Amino acid sequence: MRHTRRAIRAALTAGRALAAAACGIVELLRYAAETGRNVLMGYVKEDGTQSVRTVAPQKVWRSKAGHWCLRAACLLRGEDRTFRLDRVTALETA
After folding, report:
1. pTM given for the model
2. Please, what's the b/e burial string for 43-53 (b: 16 or more CB within 10 A of its CB; e: otherwise)?
3. Per DSSP, what are the bridge partners of residue 83?
4. pLDDT of residue 91 exceeding 80
5. Distance between CA atoms of residues 68 and 22, nearest Å
6. Radius of gyration (C-alpha) of the chain in whole angstroms
7. In what order do the strands lie in the sheet with 88-93?
8. Percent of the chain with pLDDT over 70
9. Residues 6+ apart with CB under 8 A from 31
10. For the chain, does the N or the C end have fewer beta carbons within 10 angstroms?
11. DSSP state letters, 11-39
């Protein structure tokens, strides 16, 4: 029982840290969208493929499933794309 409580506490603490990090990412992306700045982003696709993309953020929202999402013009692909923020590995304003 003691180990279970520790595991639950650790998960809650990690969840809070992830939520705080997500809030920072969301605010940075919203700011970039409002000011017209591009963002350099490390991203992992669903199949595990990693890439680095430069995107022009347009909109950030939370999906019905609870995932934070970004709609942005992907300069690598030359079209608008939707990205899940839990798959972003690095973020920097360009």
Report:
1. 0.73
2. beeeeeeeeeb
3. 70
4. yes
5. 8
6. 15
7. 79-84, 68-74, 50-62, 39-44, 88-93
8. 76
9. 37
10. N
11. HHHHHHHHHHHHHHHHHHHHHHHHHT--E
